[in-house]
Amino acid sequence: MVILVIYFFSIKRLDRNVMEMGSFYPTVKTDSQPFLVPSVFVNGEQFYIKLPLENRDTLLAFGDTGGGLSMIPGPTIEEKNLESKVKRGILKGIMPVRYILFSDLVLDADFPQPYPVRSFVVRTPFERVAQPHLIVPPMDDELKFMIKSMPDMDVFLGQGFFMGKSWTIDYIQQKIWVNTPLTESDKSNPHVQHIGFMKNNARENIYGHGSMFIEVNGEKIDVLFDTGASIILSDEGRKLMNTKQKVLGGSFIAASVFNKWHKEHPDWKYYPRADMKNDIIEVPLVNIGGHEVGPVLFASRPDKNWSEGMINSMDKIVKGAIGGSGLKFLKVTVDYNSELIKFEM
Fold first, then answer.
1. I want to staple 174 with a disulfide (CB 3.0 to 4.6 A). Which of 41, 50, 147, 277 is the partner?
2. CATH class of residue range 181-344
3. Residue 250's Cα: distance from chain center in Å?
4. Residue ranges per domain, the chain?
5. Which residues make beta-bridge pairs with 296?
6. Which of 67, 111, 71, 104 is nearest to 85 (CA)?
7. R_g of the chain computed on alpha carbons
8. What's the pTM value of the predicted model, to 2 decimals?
9. Residue 291 in contact with residue 308, Cβ under 8 Å?
10. Backbone angles phi, psi at 21, to 5 degrees
11. Residue 278 in contact with residue 300, Cβ under 8 Å?
C-alpha cells in the first residue's frame, strides 16, 4: 500500500511538471510546404479527415477544434482489425488506458499528427508516451450516443490534432490545407483576429481551445472556435425545420444571451427543444472576422458550461462557440503558432 501511495503521488508530481514544461510539444517546422489534407465535408458545415491506412483502407476522422482527446473507438478497432496495434498505458498513475500510436496507422510522414493533451499524459509506467497517439476510450453512454449520432465517424480528432500547426479550412471550396502560416504582416488585415489560448508559466499553450469574437447587432461576443459544434435534432426539431437530417453543423450561445436575443427579436426564427432538449434560434446576420454572414443557427447552452466548464481550458470566459453554421460561409485560416485567425469570403 505504501509503495502504491508513493507511486501515485510521484505521478501526480510528474503531471504537474508536464503542465509547466516549455518543451512538451515537438519543434514546429516553419519551412514545411502546404499539404492538402484529404477530407470530406458534410453539408458544407462539418468535415472528416481521411486517414490513409497502410492497407489502402481509409478511416473517417471527425475534425473538432473544440473537442478534447483524439480517440479511436473500440468498434472501429474491431471493424478494421486493428487490435494488434493497440498498446497499454497508464493515466493519472492508476487508470489503465489503451492507445494506438498514430504512426502505426498512418505511414505518410507528411500527414498531420495529433499532439497529446497535457492533462491526459499516458505513461508506461513512468515514461511519458511522447509519440502522437489515439486514445481507445471506454464505451460509456456518451461515446455510444456520439457513435449513434455520427455513424460515419471512425475516429475523433480533437484539439490536439490541430495544435502547433497552421490550417486553412476552406468551407466554400470544401478543402483543407495544413502548413499555411499567418505572420506579423497579417495583423494589419481587418479580417484577421488574435486567437487566444490558455498558457503556462513558460508561455506555451496548454490547450488548443481558442477564443475569438463575433459580433451580433454591433455587440462583441467572445466565443470558442469550434469546427465540431453539432446540433443533434430531436424529432420535434426535424419537424419544425422540415428536414430529415439528424445532425447539423451548429454554433452555441449562453442561455442569457439566447434569451436576450429571443426577447429583443421576436421575428427571429425560434425552434423550441429542437436540439435534444435545447432551444435553437436563427440569427439573420453575424459578423465573423469583418464579414456579415447568415443566417446562423445557435443552440442554447447553460451559462455555467462556459463560466465553470470551458474556462478550465481557455484563456477567458466565453459566451458560446462559433461552428459550422457560421463558418460554412467562409475560408478560415487559423495559425496556432502566431495565434492569428483569418476569415475570407
1. 41
2. mainly beta
3. 13
4. 36-167, 181-344
5. 283
6. 104
7. 20
8. 0.94
9. no
10. -60, 135
11. yes
